[in-house]
Write a structure and sequence with these properties.
The chain has 71 residues and is mainly alpha-helical. The chain has a domain of 45 residues. The chain is built from three helices and no strands. Helix 1 runs antiparallel to helix 2. The chain is extended, with a radius of gyration of 17 Å.
Length: 71
């Protein structure tokens, strides 16, 4: 299987990462509290990461799997 399907995701991720600073600046301006803006941004990213890992077709390795890995 070709790994070329990954490249569009890399490009999209780069675009989203470049847009992150202005979006966070606007969020800080809207909420008028930098700590609240940081918390909202952090919780959103945490929620999206948990959602992405919960719908992936293969499960994440368990601690037992990690312990059995050869170093």
């Amino acid at each position: 299987m070709s790994s070329s399907w990954v490249y569009p995701f890399i490009v999209i991720d780069g675009i989203l990462q470049a847009a992150d600073a202005p979006i966070n600046g606007e969020l800080k301006r809207s909420l008028a509290n930098p700590w609240l803006a940081s918390s909202v941004s952090f919780l959103l990213v945490t929620f999206l990461t948990i959602a992405a890992f919960s719908v992936q077709p293969t499960p994440l390795p368990t601690l037992g799997d990690l312990r059995r890995m050869k170093s």
